[in-house]
Design a protein that fits this description.
Layout lengths: L1 H25 L3 E2 L8 E4 L2 E3 L7 E2 L1 E5 L2 E6 L1 H5 L7 E4 L4 E4 L1 E6 L1 H10 L1 E2 L8 H14 L6 E5 L3 H4 L8 H7 L5 E5 L3 E4 L1 H7 L13 E4 L5 E6 L11 H17 L3 E9 L3 H9 L7 E7 L25 E9 L34 H14 L2 E5 L3 H16 L7 E4 L8 H11 L3 E5 L8 H8 L1 H4 L5 H6 L5 E2 L13 H10 L1 E2 L2 E2 L8 H7 L2 H6 L17 E4 L16 E6 L2 E5 L2
Parallel strand pairs: 2-7, 3-8, 9-16, 10-11, 11-12, 16-17, 17-18, 18-19, 19-20, 20-21, 21-22
Antiparallel strand pairs: 1-6, 2-5, 3-4, 5-6, 8-25, 12-13, 13-15, 14-15, 23-24, 25-26, 26-27
Helix pairs in contact: 3-8, 10-11, 11-12
C-alpha cells in the first residue's frame, strides 16, 4: 500500500508540473520564430484572430509584411527593438483583412465612370430612366454608345414593373446605339445597337454565348441575355491602367478589403500584367480569375498567357482561376430553373425557365483545362437546374480521379437550394468543392425573388445556416459590378446574415448566423475558396499582416446596429492603406 501511495503521489506531482507548464506556455505570445525583431507592432486592440483557438489578443508584431507574434500588450511590446514602430489601436476591434471572394473590379469602375445612372431607388421609374438617357444622347457624338446602368431586378422595382422597351429606346436615340443594363445578366438595347452588334432576324445566339430575345415574328425584341462579351467596350488602355493603379484598390480598401478575387475579362489581362511587371506594389492583393466567352468556349488549353510576368510582386498578384456562366441570374429571370418563373415579362427567355449559357460538355472542358493548368475552375450557377449541371460536371471530373486543385460553384444556393443538391455538394466538398455566396443580396433581392418564384421556392435560397451545419464553408463575396455599389460594404452583409433582415422583412430567421460565423465567411473561408488559406484569413504567425480595424466591437454591439459599424483602418502587409479619419 505504501509503495502504491508513493507512486500515486509522484503521478500527481508530475501531472501538476505538466499542467503548470501548459499554462505557462499558453501565457506566452504565439511566435513564428525566436529572435525576430518586428518592424511594427500594433497594440492596445481587441484583435479577433479567428485562428483554430479563436483567440482574442491585444497586440501583434509584424516583420517583412507578415505576422510573427500575437499576444498581450506586454508580451508583444517586449519584442520591440530600437527601430520598431509602435501603433496604438486605441482599443478598437480588429479582424483579419476582409477578402472579397468573387467580384468584378473593372466592371465596377467602368459602370461608375462611363454609364448613365438609372439605378433604383434614385431613379424610380422607366420614365425617369429615359429622361436621364435622353440628356446623355443630347451631348453625345453621332454613333457614340449610350450606356445606362440599372440595378438588378429593375423589372420588379421600377414603377412600371418592367424595363424600357426597344421602341422607347429608339424614340430617344435613333442614331446612337443604346445599352441598358438590368444588372449585368439582362440588357435592353435599341435598333442601332442591334445593327452594330450584327443581330439578324431569327438569330437566337450571339458569338460568345449571349442570347437574343425574339418577338412572335422572329424579329429581335431588344433583349439580350448574358451578352457582356458581345457588347463592345469603350474603355481605353489608359482608363484601365488607372483602374489598376488607383481606382480599384482605393474603392475596396475603403470597405476594409485587403484581397479581392477579381473576375477579369481576358482582353483586360495585358493591362494588369503591364502594371504588375513594373514591380508596382498596390494596396490590395489581386487574385485574378479570367473569362473570355460567357460559355468558356474559346478558353485556350494553355493558360500560361494569363500568368503574371517576371518582375510582378507575387504577394499581390496571382492568377487563380478561369470562369464560365452556366446560366444567367434569377434576379433577371435568366437563372436556369427546372420550373418556370411566375407570370411573364417581355424580357423573359423563351419558355420562361431562364437561359442556359454553357453546356455540360463546355463546362467539363473548362474544368479539365483548369485542372491541367493548376488553377481553379469557377462555374456560375444561379438556378436549380444550372446548379445540377455544375455539380454533375464536377462529379464527372472526380470520377476520373482525385482532382489536384479545388473547384468552385459561384452563387451556390443563393437563389435556390434543395436537400439533394446540398447532399451532392457535401460529398463534392471532400473532393475539393468550394462555394461562393453573396449575403448582401438578402437586403435587395428577396422581394424580387418572391415575386418571380413564389415564397416556397424563394425560401430555399440564402440558407447559410443549413450550409454551415452540413459542413460547407461558404465564402462571402460582393459580386459587385457597379450596379449596387453599396453592396460592397461587408458590414451590410454581416448584418443581413446575423439578423436575417431583408428587403421583404425578416426572412427565414432560423437561418441566422453568429457574428463569428459571418466573419469567417469574409476571412478564412474566403481564403480557402481561393486556395490561399496558408497565407490569409486569420491573424497568426506566418500569414500576411492584413487587418481591418472597426469603429465598434462587432462581437458585443446590438446586432441591429452592425450595419452602422464603419471601417476605421485597412492594413495590408502591416501598412495602413486606408484611414477613415
Amino acid at each position: 500500500m505504501k509503495k502504491s501511495s508513493a507512486t500515486s503521489k509522484k503521478i500527481k506531482q508530475a501531472t501538476c508540473c505538466f499542467l503548470f507548464m501548459v499554462i505557462l506556455f499558453c501565457s506566452f505570445p504565439v511566435l513564428s520564430s525566436a529572435g525576430e525583431v518586428p518592424e511594427v507592432i500594433y497594440f492596445n486592440g481587441k484583435i479577433i484572430t479567428l485562428d483554430k483557438s479563436n483567440r482574442i489578443v491585444e497586440a501583434v508584431a509584424i516583420l517583412n509584411g507578415k505576422f510573427i507574434a500575437a499576444g498581450t500588450n506586454g508580451e508583444i511590446r517586449r519584442l520591440a527593438g530600437s527601430n520598431t514602430k509602435l501603433i496604438d489601436l486605441q482599443q478598437k476591434t480588429v479582424t483579419p483583412g476582409f477578402i472579397d471572394a468573387h467580384t468584378h473590379p473593372v466592371e465596377t469602375m467602368y459602370l461608375t465612370t462611363d454609364f448613365v445612372n438609372c439605378r433604383y431607388p434614385g431613379v424610380p421609374s422607366v420614365k425617369q430612366a429615359l429622361r436621364n438617357m435622353t440628356d446623355s444622347v443630347k451631348t453625345a457624338k453621332k454613333g457614340q454608345w449610350i450606356l445606362a446602368a440599372c440595378v438588378s431586378a429593375s423589372q420588379t422595382k421600377f414603377a412600371e414593373k418592367r424595363m424600357p422597351t426597344l421602341a422607347e429606346l429608339d424614340s430617344i436615340s435613333p442614331d446612337n446605339p443604346v445599352v441598358v443594363l438590368d444588372g449585368t445578366h439582362l440588357f435592353v438595347v435599341n435598333s442601332k445597337a442591334l445593327e452594330v452588334i450584327g443581330v439578324k432576324k431569327g438569330q437566337t445566339k450571339l458569338p460568345h454565348g449571349g442570347g437574343i430575345g425574339l418577338d412572335s415574328n422572329g424579329n429581335p425584341n431588344g433583349t439580350l441575355t448574358d451578352a457582356f462579351a458581345d457588347v463592345p467596350s469603350v474603355l481605353t488602355p489608359a482608363q484601365l491602367e488607372s483602374f489598376f493603379t488607383t481606382g480599384i484598390q482605393k474603392f475596396w480598401n475603403s470597405y476594409g478589403f485587403t484581397t479581392v478575387m477579381g473576375i477579369t475579362q481576358a482582353a483586360v489581362v495585358p493591362v494588369i500584367q503591364k502594371v504588375a511587371s513594373t514591380g508596382y506594389k498596390p494596396s490590395l492583393r489581386y487574385s485574378m480569375s479570367v473569362w473570355k466567352a460567357a460559355n468558356g468556349e474559346d478558353m485556350p488549353e494553355d493558360l500560361s498567357v494569363f500568368a503574371f510576368p517576371a518582375g510582378s510582386n507575387t504577394d499581390y498578384y496571382h492568377f487563380t482561376g478561369i470562369k464560365a456562366w452556366v446560366d444567367g441570374e434569377n434576379d433577371a429571370r435568366t437563372g436556369l430553373m427546372c420550373s418556370p418563373y411566375l407570370g411573364h415579362k417581355e424580357t423573359d427567355p423563351e419558355g420562361g425557365h431562364g437561359s442556359q449559357v454553357t453546356s455540360g460538355d463546355q463546362a467539363m472542358r473548362l474544368a479539365k483545362i483548369a485542372q491541367k493548368n493548376g488553377v481553379i475552375c469557377m462555374l456560375h450557377c444561379s438556378g436549380d437546374k444550372a446548379m445540377a449541371i455544375g455539380m454533375t460536371t464536377y462529379e464527372n471530373l472526380c470520377a476520373e480521379g482525385k482532382p489536384k486543385n479545388i473547384f468552385r460553384i459561384e452563387h451556390f444556393g443563393v437563389f435556390q437550394m434543395y436537400q439533394n443538391q446540398l447532399d451532392r455538394a457535401v460529398k463534392l466538398h471532400t473532393e475539393g468543392l468550394r462555394i461562393s455566396v453573396q449575403p448582401t443580396w438578402l437586403t435587395v433581392l428577396v422581394k424580387s425573388d418572391i415575386e418571380d418564384m413564389g415564397y416556397e421556392r424563394a425560401a430555399t435560397g440564402f440558407r447559410f445556416r443549413t450550409m454551415i451545419h452540413a459542413g460547407l464553408e461558404p465564402a462571402g463575396s460582393t459580386d459587385v459590378t457597379g450596379v449596387y455599389l453599396e453592396n460592397t460594404n461587408p458590414m451590410k452583409a454581416i448584418y443581413a446574415t446575423v439578423t436575417r433582415n431583408s428587403d421583404a422583412g425578416k426572412f427565414e430567421a432560423d437561418q441566422a448566423l453568429t457574428v463569428t460565423e459571418s466573419l469567417k465567411m469574409w476571412t478564412i473561408w474566403a481564403a480557402r475558396s481561393l486556395g490561399e488559406e496558408q497565407l490569409k484569413g486569420t491573424i497568426e504567425p506566418g500569414k500576411y499582416a492584413d487587418m481591418t480595424v472597426l469603429s465598434d466591437d462587432i462581437l458585443t454591439i446590438d446586432q441591429e446596429k452592425i450595419i452602422e459599424i464603419k471601417i476605421e483602418k485597412t492594413i495590408v502587409g502591416g501598412i495602413i492603406v486606408y484611414s477613415r479619419k
